[in-house]
Design brief:
With 259 residues, the protein is α/β, with parallel strands linked by helices. It contains 13 helices and 5 strands. Helix 2 links the parallel strand 3 and strand 4. The longest helix has 16 residues. The protein starts with 14 loop residues before the first strand and ends with a helix.
Length: 259
């Protein structure tokens, strides 16, 4: 749904991921759940728009090295809590290693992303941040924003878990995940991204490979869900046993976010 997408000067993939019907006959409140890419390059006008949304909690899913390389800008009157993790401090990010060492083709990109998604739910940083995020959902009475670098993978998986918990249908859950491919003009952005990739890897990727790497596909999210089910038996068991989202916490989140 294109109306979910908010246009900013220099902030990509900013969307409201609330306002979905639930299978129980309810509705997720609009205007309280937001997702985006990183905020390092936002304009003064963007900061004013973000300030008007009055975020109580911002969950930054990026690794420490990502935050240092592209530090977030905040409005002068920002009064929210920023949740971030110092896990994964050591070593190069897996996607950087991939870009430096693998064949840069659409198929290799898809294989890498599928394998990455199978590991995302279990990374120590994500277990830490996801669990703190769900506690914040139950406690905050102001809007919440989640973001990573591009706002598509780590952010997309966390939004999908939220939708599952709230009872959003599988079709709507997937529609929201795939909306990245509409929110970001992949074709137009690919040449610039290719130049950035070449600058830090010394290698040239084809246009199609860059588009595939920048976008999302249903198979990626399906891979993450399958991995959760294999290890825990169900998404609900993953939420409870891996993230500590027990029945009481779940009920508080549903109560707060139901329209």
């Amino acid at each position: 749904m294109a109306s979910r997408i908010h246009a900013f000067d220099a902030l990509d993939n900013f969307r409201d991921y609330g306002d979905y019907a639930t299978t129980a006959g309810g509705h997720v409140r609009p205007g309280v759940l937001y997702r985006s890419a990183h905020h390092a390059g936002v304009s003064e006008g963007d900061l004013e728009r973000l300030a008007a949304l009055d975020f109580g909690v911002v969950i930054d899913l990026r690794r420490p090295v990502e935050r240092r390389r592209q530090p977030s800008k905040r409005a002068p009157n920002f009064s929210g809590v920023v949740i971030e993790s110092d896990h994964d401090e050591v070593g190069e990010a897996p996607h950087i290693t991939f870009l430096k060492t693998s064949d840069l083709t659409p198929e290799s990109g898809r294989q890498f992303m599928t394998a990455t998604y199978r590991e995302l739910p279990f990374a120590p940083a994500h277990l830490d941040l996801f669990s703190r995020y769900f506690r914040a959902l139950a406690e905050s009475d102001r809007p919440v924003l989640i973001h990573c670098a591009a706002g598509k993978d780590r952010t997309g998986m966390l939004a999908a878990l939220t939708h599952h918990l709230l009872g959003v249908s599988g079709d709507d859950l997937m529609e929201d995940y795939l909306l990245t491919n509409t929110a970001v003009d992949l074709e137009a952005r690919a040449p610039g991204i290719a130049e950035q990739m070449k600058a830090f890897t010394g290698r040239t990727a084809s246009h199609d490979a860059v588009v595939a790497f920048m976008g999302v596909e249903a198979a990626y999210l399906h891979a993450a869900i399958a991995a959760m089910v294999e290890r825990y038996g169900s998404i609900d068991a993953y939420l409870e046993r891996a993230l500590g989202v027990d029945a009481g916490l779940r009920d508080r989140i549903v109560e707060r976010l139901s329209a």
